[in-house]
Amino acid sequence: MRRAKTLILIILVTSWLGSNSPGLAWGPEGHRIVAVIVQMNLTPQTQQRVNALLGPYNSIAAISSWADDARVDFPETASWHYIDIPLDENKIDLASECPQGNCVIAQIEKSEAALKDPRTSEADRRVALKFLVHFVADLHQPLHCEDNHDKGGNMVQVVFFGQPSNLHAVWDSGILRHIKPYGNQLATELAQRITPGQRQQWVKGTIEDWALESHWLARNIAYKRLPQGATPELGEAYLEAATPVVEIQLEKAGIRLAYLLSQALQ
Ligand code: ADE
Ligand code: ZN
Ligand code: ZN
Fold first, then answer.
1. How many angstroms separate the CA atoms of 261 and 125, rounded?
2. How far away, in angstroms, is 151 Cα from ligand 1 center?
3. Nearest to 171 by CA among 18, 22, 62
């Protein structure tokens, strides 16, 4: 009995800590949704190569949040999940915003190159695949491509449907939790409504173009739609503006990642 109580306490405390930790990325749910969309868009050949790398007991969904967990043991990777493009800018300055390749754009390119290079060891290819899967999803979270002197919205306190939160966490996971259906069913629905025309359009452009698209959404939706006030109260009106953005960004991330994998694992 005592042990059961201790166990419950541990579960409560860890889940509380998890829900309040500063925004890492899309929460695990966002990454899992992107992974399901990727799975539904891989060619058999690419699927086979992914399987060969990950082994029989793993899947894209299972490894999709590994990079967030890896930040504990490898703190030098923390800045690889985002790029701080100033909110009022409309271009990227890699020299100042991506010093020594420490940003999400450079790390996507680095992982792609490692996967393409036949000299990369099996172990390094596996790591590159795990980073690529995670960072392409992160790039599509609008607040991972901006900074307004607020750590990508992490410092912006808000109230979201009556709960104290911050703007970054609202975009990592808060909005997603309010979309119905949830989980795999949402992923399937999002994947099914992507048209062949969208698929063709979305794979065009560079990683930088995709980052600027994300950045534009941060400025024109995430920040512009904030109600006035020291601690903005976000509810239905904000959710209505944000939901289509979150959905399209998850869809784009899935299609683009499937495309990058097919290119990298020729
Ligand atoms: N820390 C600093 N800037 C950030 C951003 N844009 N996204 C996530 N974490 C950050
Ligand atoms: Zn985040
Ligand atoms: Zn991340």
1. 12
2. 5
3. 22
Q: Tell me which of 49 and 13 has the higher pLDDT.
A: 49
Q: Pick from 151, 166, 171, 217 the residue to mutate for probing ligand 1's pocket: most ligand atoms within 8 Å of its CB.
A: 151
Strand partners, 86: 147
Pocket test for ligand 1, best of 85, 103, 104, 144 (most atoms within 8 A of CB): 144
Are 222 and 167 in contact by the 8 Å Cβ rule? The answer is yes
Structural domain count of the chain: 1
> In this prediction, what percent of the chain has a pLDDT beyond 90?
89
Domain hosting 57: range is: 1-266
User: What pLDDT sits at residue 4?
Assistant: 52
The tens digit of pLDDT for each residue in 112-126 reads 999 999 999 999 999
Q: What is the pLDDT of residues 184-201, one digit of tens each?
A: 999 999 999 999 999 999
Burial (0-12, 13-18, 19+ Cβ within 10 Å), 249: buried
User: Could you tell which of 134, 143, 148, 170 is best to mutate to test the pocket of ligand 1, judged by most ligand atoms within 8 Å of the CB?
Assistant: 143
Number of Cβ within 10 Å of residue 110's Cβ equals 16
State whether the beta carbon of 27 lies less than 6 angstroms from ligand 1: no
Q: According to the model, what pLDDT value does residue 23 have?
A: 55
Q: What's 7's domain CATH number?
A: 1.10.575.10
Separation of 26 CA from ligand 3 center, angstroms?
Answer: 7
Is residue 97 lining ligand 1, measured as CB closer than 6 Å? no
